[in-house]
Design goal:
mainly alpha
């Protein structure tokens, strides 16, 4: 009981907005296409961590939706000047005790055909599980 009254007096916990908070806020601005607040979030993100390309991509995409081509070009120029690179997503699969890394549609592995067949099988199994779960 005593701890509850202490908590009530202190009020809600305050956190200092960090890149995670501002990044989530920018993501929400992108979803709801709130350009003004998105620009504020991007400014704060640049102050905290100017090297995260994802923030620039979100802002650029917001400008594209609003057809603000000059702003799109500005953001892309900034990304180029900062030499920021988007890292491709990749998958890791273990085949016969060998760990293989590849990106989407990568066919360079000697057993890629079997790997993709297995992924298609897994996809079908997940769909069946989902269908069973939702019915």
């Amino acid at each position: 009981m005593a701890s509850a009254s202490i908590t009530e007096r202190q009020g809600p916990a305050r956190i200092s907005p960090n890149t995670n908070v501002w990044g989530a806020f920018l993501g929400a601005c992108h979803i709801y296409q709130n350009m003004r607040k998105g620009e504020i979030a991007t400014k704060k993100l640049r102050e905290l961590d100017a090297s995260e390309i994802g923030h620039y991509v979100l802002l650029s995409n917001m400008y594209v939706v609003d057809e603000k081509w000059g702003d799109v070009a500005e953001v892309r120029k900034l990304v180029e000047e900062k030499q920021l690179k988007k890292v491709s997503g990749h998958s890791i699969v273990e085949v016969r005790d060998e760990v293989c890394t590849f990106v989407a549609n990568d066919k360079s592995h000697q057993e890629s055909k079997q790997i993709y067949e297995l992924l298609i099988t897994f996809q079908g199994m997940m769909k069946e599980e989902y269908d069973d779960f939702t019915t």
